[in-house]
Design brief:
Largest sheet: 8 strands, mixed
Number of strands: 10
Radius of gyration: 15 Å
CATH architecture: Alpha-Beta Complex
Structural class: alpha+beta
Strand content: 25-35%
CATH class: Alpha Beta
CATH topology: Nucleoside Triphosphate Pyrophosphohydrolase
Amino acid sequence: MVKQEEKEKKYIRSAGAVVFRRTPGGIRLLVLRAYKNWDFPKGLVESGEDALAAAKREVKEETGLTQVEYPFGDEYKETLPYAANKVARYYLAETEEHEIELPVSTALGRPEHHEFRWVSLDEAEDLLPPRLAVVLGWARQTLAGH
C-alpha cells in the first residue's frame, strides 16, 4: 500500500519557455547549454510565484530577451519527473529578436549557460535530452497548427 505522504510527494518545480522565432527557413527554437546539457530557458519557481510569471522571469534573466510574446497564453507541457523529484513546466514564447545575452549570474559569478543556439525542430530533437521529448513534441504539434 502506498502511504498518503508518498502519493502527495512534493516535486521541485521549475518553469521556462520554448522560445521560438519565425524565419524564412522555418521555425527556430532557442536552446541553451550548461556544461554538456542542452535545455530551454527555465529555472525554479519561487515561493508564492505563479509558474507563468516564473517562466517569463527566467526567459528574461537567462537570455536578455525583452520583446517576448506568449501567443498560446497559459497553455503548457510538463516533463515527467526526472532527477528523482523535479518537474519542469514549459510555455511557448515567441520573439523576433535573435541576439541573446548570456548574463553573469550573481550567485555563480559567471554566466549560467555556456552557449546558445537557434535550431530547427529536428536539430532540437538531436540536442535535447530524452526528458524533453514530450515538450518538443508538444511544441512541434502546437506550432504546426499556427
